[in-house]
Amino acid sequence: MNNQPALRTDNLDVTYTGNRTVTALDGVSVDFAENALTAIIGPSGCGKSTLLKSLNRLHEIQPNAEISGEVHFGDQTVYNTDEPLPELRRQIGYVPQTPTPLPMSIYNNVAYGPKIHGDYSRKELDDLVETCLRKVNLWDEVADRLDDPGAALSTGQIQRLCLARSLAVEPEILLCDEVTSALDPISAEQVEETLESLKEEYTIIMVTHSMDQARRLADDVVFLYLGELVEANDARTFFENPQADRTKEFISGHGASTHLEESDSSDSGAKPDEQQESAGDEPAPVQQ
């Protein structure tokens, strides 16, 4: 793995209780490098979204989730901290799979978070909105219609608007959950180009089902299977010289079918993230 870790999990377990107990993550210990893009991959239902959401405690909105282990963020611990959750989630932002604009103007979609978290003059907000929209390569497309509703944009533009909204509260880390899966190829390429440029300034951790996307974008790759960490390595080593047999099978296109059959046989008790990864994430609440 490259660079120093911006986030580190230590023996992280996540269990969902309900009609039956399901272990979503089992003893996952992994580093996420600073100012790099890490792709989390694996078959559907393997715990990718659970791992992503556990990094800023977003999965706690599900009342049946039980967590043990720890996530280390700089010199603080995520689960044993006095830091208010809104502040933690400001520093570790989340961009959901489904592009979801706030019911307000393009300008206010970006300015909403800063208005809550800080005391900005109108000139400062104007500059911040422009800066964030430029970072996501959207400014030139919307500069003359900032008062239009955010929902009037195309799906690809809305996803970039959501990225700009996350950047406006000055996070250190961006958690991206399948952010191109709902987009057409041209829009997906634009978002990929945006992520490629943003990793110079931010740490990006991204769940993806696309092996090709992981090859194109990732500096590091984390591979999960049945809730366990199989392999974590820099992208070149991961794809060209994988260390684990399970990784070799997965990269070659084999090795997922067994798990998918197991998941299909237990749908009635599937954990929430299995259902989301199969059917698509529901729009997440806005976390500022």
Strand content: 15-25%
Mean pLDDT: 87
Q: Give the biggest beta sheet.
A: 6 strands, mixed
The CATH class assignment of the domain at 5-99 and 173-252 is Alpha Beta
Describe the structure.
Residues 248-288 are annotated as: Disordered. InterPro entries: AAA+_ATPase, ABC_transporter-like_ATP-bd, P-loop_NTPase, PstB-like. This is ABC transporter. With 288 residues, the protein is α/β, with parallel strands linked by helices. It has a domain at 5-99 and 173-252: P-loop containing nucleotide triphosphate hydrolases (Rossmann fold, 3-Layer(aba) Sandwich). 37% of the residues lie in helices and 23% in strands. It has helices at 48-54, 85-91, 106-117, 122-135, 139-142, 155-167, 185-198, 211-217, 235-240, 245-251, 257-264, 272-279, and strands at 5-16, 22-33, 37-41, 65-73, 76-77, 92-95, 173-177, 203-207, 220-225, 228-234. The strands form two sheets. The chain has a six-stranded mixed β-sheet, with helices on both faces. Helix 4 packs across helix 6 (155-167) and helix 6 (155-167) runs parallel beside helix 7. The two termini are 29 Å apart. The relative contact order is 0.20. The model is unreliable at 256-288 (pLDDT under 50).
Structure described in brief:
With 288 residues, the protein is an alpha/beta fold. The protein is built from 12 helices and 10 strands. One of its GO terms (cellular component) is membrane.
